[in-house]
Amino acid sequence: MKSMPLGGTGIEIGQFVFGAGSIGGVGGAPQTRGLGITEEQGFARLDEAYELGIRVVDTADVYAQGDSEVAVGRWLSQREPSDVLVQTKFGGVARDGKPASDLSGAHLRRQLAQSIERLGRVDLYLSHVPDPDTPPEETLTAFAEAREAGLIRAFGVCNVDAGLLEALLKTAADAGLPRPEFVQNGFSLLNRADEPELLPLVRSEGLGYLAFSPLAGGVLSERYLDGAAPQPGSRIAVAGDQFYPGAHTEENLARVTRLRELARRREVSVAGLALAWLSAHPAVTAPIVSPSSETQWQAVREALSFELDAESAAEISELFG
Question: Which numeric CATH code is attached to 12-180?
Answer without folding.
Answer: 3.20.20.100
